[in-house]
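Section 4.2 – Deliverable D4.2 (structural model, holo form)

The reporting period included a commitment to supply a predicted holo structure for the target in complex with adenosine-5'-diphosphate. Inputs used:
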Amino acid sequence: MENVKRIVVKIGTSTVCHANGAPNLKRIDQLCRTITDLKNSGIDVVLVSSGAIGVGINRMGLSERPKEMALRQAAASIGQGELMRIYDRFFTDYGSLCGQILLTKDITENPEGKNNVIATFEALLQLHAVPVVNENDSVATEEIVYGDNDTLSAVVALFTDADLLVILSDIDGLYDKDPSKFANAHRIRVVDDFDSIDAEISDSNTSQGTGGMITKIQAAKIAAAAGIPTILASGKNPEILYEIQEGRQPGTLFAAGKEKA
Ligand code: ADP
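Output (C-alpha cells):
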C-alpha cells in the first residue's frame, strides 16, 4: 500500500472488550503498539473505538446493559474515561500522543462545526497524535446520533481525507452468508459493485455490538463514494494492520468507486 499515507481504523466493541465488557488489555496493547509502529513508518492513523458503554457497565458492576437511557449514558460517561485512560497509557508507553474526539451528528452536519472538527483532526495529526474518536454517547440523544461507529468511521475518513478505512471486527470479512449460522459460508475477497453484493446478511447477534454487517457495508459505501477503499478484517490480532501495510489483503476489500480527487 505505497500510496496509503493516512488510514482510519475502526475497532468494534467485541474486539476491544471481553464478553463481560471488561477491556481486553492484550488486544488494546497490541493495537496501540501496531498503530504507533505504522505512525513511526510515516502513516497517519486515526482510531475510531467502540467499547465505552461495555467498559462502563462492567465498571459499574452491572451484569447487563441498563434499560434506562440516563444509566446507559452514565455508563458511556464512566466507560469513555476509563477506555481513554487505557489508550493513553498504552500509547504513552510506545511513545505516541493521543487525543480524544467525541462527535455527534449535529456537529458534523453543521458547516461551521464540521470545519472545526476537520481543523482539530488536522492539528492533532500534524502533532503526530492519534485522534481517538467515538460518538459522544453520554449526552447524545436519538436525533443526533449516528448510532453505530461504522458509519461514524466513514464520516471520519471523509473528514480526514484518508486513503483507506480499515474496519476491524469480530468477523474476518464479508461472507456470502453469516458464517456464525452457516458452516459452508465463503468469504468474499473483493466487492467492487455495491449494487450487486451477492451476500445474505443476518442481524447482528452479538450482545455487545450495535452495528452488524449492514452498517459496515453502508460505511464502506460512503467511503467508496468519496474515493476511499475499505478493508473489513478480523480484529482478533491487531497486527493484521501490518499485513495491510505490506499490501497483503486480508478480509474483504471494498473497492473505491472513483479515484480520490
Ligand atoms: P463488531 O462488533 O465488530 O462491530 P458486529 O457483531 O456488529 O461486529 O457485526 C459482525 C457480525 O455480523 C458477525 O459476527 C456475523 O455474525 C454477522 N454477519 C451477518 N451476516 C454476515 C455475513 N454475510 N458475513 C459476515 N458476517 C455476517
